[in-house]
Design brief:
By secondary structure, this protein is an alpha+beta fold. It is built from 11 helices and 13 strands. The chain starts with a helix and ends in a 7-residue tail after the last strand.
Length: 394
């Protein structure tokens, strides 16, 4: 991988002697979906697949950006002094947004850069290819220009780029997980105050299997922002009867006591998911810490039902994958992961059942949906970093 990337860099940009190699993972959220912008808990982990970059400074005062995944676009060049969102720049708006955010926060872009990107995360799959690209760009800017920013700050700058530059009103989870990942651990993150602990993932005789529906979905064009707005409306009405900062502060019992303050029955269901999912996530991490992987899997299943019925973000593709998974022997738990409306499911599957799981779930999916799903047996890896040797998924 390393040699291929540097060879391609030389082909596109010329001499690579001053260039460095970087890697940023994708992420999967094991449980705790659509809670991160509601002040709740999430439980993501970084993956050993992600986005690579080869980068170096140039003397042109231009950001010259090239992706091996979008080779037909060629090199996109933008001024290093002014970053403006342009629809025609497509994927480049993600790194541009991070450069803009760095400048906004007082971290100067002192020169141009030549950057070659390559990702082995399925594009649009819900494994955070955009957050991976954003955090990766932040690591490059920190390294090339010597900025005094830690990984938490980089994740916040990447989130700002997604929110304010690219117009996706996402929470902090994706960028935080990509930046702060730790091998063989998931991150139990309280999104209300960014306090977090690492929890070891010990899946004896089982593995994480991700199924990509191959239904592409653009967050900015989906109902993601609508769901967030519905939760904000519900919260504002609850706050008239109970002093809370966010939905994540409520227990199930407290929510049931105040839910009638919400005028719209649809918004009651949206808020109920946010509250119950947060409590599920807390219980799931406790179960994992106690070695009760069966309970963890049961809570994963309950999470999907809530996302399907109360939050309505699954759709026929994700429901087909999950329901087929539930029917298979050796499946401990399965649910949609990510924003929904397409993307992926995450399942915990016993080792000796993985081959039949992929075959049977894949068969049922293609019969019902009409095209194939892709499956990835993944490992939990470290967060974004500069590489001196070839790592991250090889």
């Amino acid at each position: 991988m390393r040699e291929e990337l540097f060879e391609k860099f030389e082909e596109v940009f010329g001499d690579s002697r001053d260039a460095a190699l970087y890697f940023s993972p994708g992420r999967v959220n094991l449980i705790g979906e659509h809670t991160d912008y509601n002040g709740g808990h999430v439980f993501p982990c970084a993956l050993n697949i992600g986005t690579y970059a080869v980068a170096r400074k140039n003397s042109q005062n231009k950001m010259n950006l090239y992706s091996m995944n979008f080779a037909s676009m060629g090199v996109v060049s933008v001024s290093a002094s002014e970053f403006v969102y342009k629809k025609e720049d497509d994927w480049c708006n993600y790194p541009k947004g991070v450069m803009w955010a760095f400048q906004q926060e007082g971290y100067p872009i002192a020169s141009g850069l030549d950057i070659l990107y390559f990702g082995n995360i399925p594009n649009g799959s819900g494994l955070s290819s955009s957050a991976s690209l954003e955090v990766l760009t932040g690591v490059i800017l920190k390294d090339c220009f010597g900025h005094d920013v830690d990984m938490v700050k980089i994740s916040l700058l990447a989130q700002k780029a997604e929110n304010q530059f690219n117009g996706v009103n996402c929470g902090i989870m994706d960028q935080f997980a990509v930046a702060m990942g730790k091998k063989d651990h998931a991150i139990f993150l309280d999104t209300a105050d960014l306090s977090y602990t690492y929890a070891p993932i010990r899946l004896d005789h089982a593995k994480i299997v991700i199924a990509s529906s191959n239904k592409k979905r653009g967050l900015a064009d989906s109902k993601y922002n609508e769901r967030r707005s519905q939760c904000e409306t519900a919260l504002a009405q609850i706050q008239k009867v109970k002093p809370v900062k966010n939905l994540g502060e409520l227990t199930e019992k407290e929510f049931e006591e105040v839910k009638d303050a919400i005028s719209d029955p649809v918004n009651i269901r949206r808020a109920r998911h946010a509250v119950y999912e947060n409590q599920r996530t807390i219980r799931a991490v406790q179960a994992l810490q106690q070695g009760d992987i069966a309970l963890f899997g049961k809570l994963m299943n309950e999470s999907h039902v809530s996302l399907r019925d109360d939050y309505e973000v699954t759709g026929v593709e994700l429901d087909t994958l999950v329901e087929a998974a539930w029917e298979q022997e050796g499946v401990i738990g399965s649910r949609m992961t990510g924003a929904g409306f397409g993307g992926c499911t995450v399942s915990i599957v016993e080792d000796d059942a993985i081959d039949s799981f992929i075959e049977q779930v894949g068969k049922k999916y293609q019969e019902r949906i009409g095209y194939k799903a892709d499956f990835y047996v993944v490992e939990i890896g470290d967060g974004a970093r500069k590489l001196d040797t070839c790592e991250g998924g090889n």
